[in-house]
Amino acid sequence: MISSKQRYNFCTIFDYSYFAKGLALYYSLNKVCDCHLYVFTPDERCKKALQEKQFSNLTIVDFNEVEDKELLEVKSKRDIAEYFWTIKGSCLQFLFSKFNLVAILDIRV
């Protein structure tokens, strides 16, 4: 159950092909709770489109900030959907360490 007194942290991964769905997610979350959305994206087009929106409670994280040698090795062997599942754990770990978050709710667009 969503509490109006608590701030929630959500994260998701999408590229520009899911941009409209990502916006729908953002607007939907903001209707029901006080939240911050962390969006991991692998492409520059999606990143620029999100930056143009200037959302105050959305943080864009480029895959380059998360990818390490092991992830880059498997990236070429997986399709984009498989890679999104592969990198998810590293994305969550990044958020916990960089932003000192206590809890993160993961949402798939």
Structure in words:
The protein is an alpha/beta fold. The protein is 47% helix and 20% strand. The chain has 4 helices and 4 strands, in the order βαβαβααβ. Strands 3-2-1-4 form a 4-stranded parallel beta sheet, sandwiched between helices. β2 (34-41), α2 and β3 form a beta-alpha-beta unit. The longest helix has 20 residues, at 80-99. It starts with 6 loop residues before the first strand and ends with a strand. The model has no long low-confidence stretch (mean pLDDT 94).
Any chance you could write out the topology, listing elements then pairs?
Layout: E1 7-13, H1 19-32, E2 34-41, H2 44-53, E3 58-62, H3 69-75, H4 80-99, E4 105-106
Parallel strand pairs: 1-2, 1-4, 2-3
Jot down its keywords:
109 residues; alpha/beta; 4-stranded parallel beta sheet; 4 helices; 47% helix; globular
User: Would you list the SSEs in sequence order as H and E?
Assistant: EHEHEHHE
Q: Quick one: overall form? A: globular
How many helices in DSSP terms? 4
Could you say which structural class the secondary elements and strand pairing correspond to?
alpha/beta
- Bin the helical content: 40-55%
Structure summary:
The chain has helices at residues 19-32, 44-53, 69-75, 80-99; strands spanning 7-13, 34-41, 58-62, 105-106. The chain is of the alpha/beta class and 109 residues long.
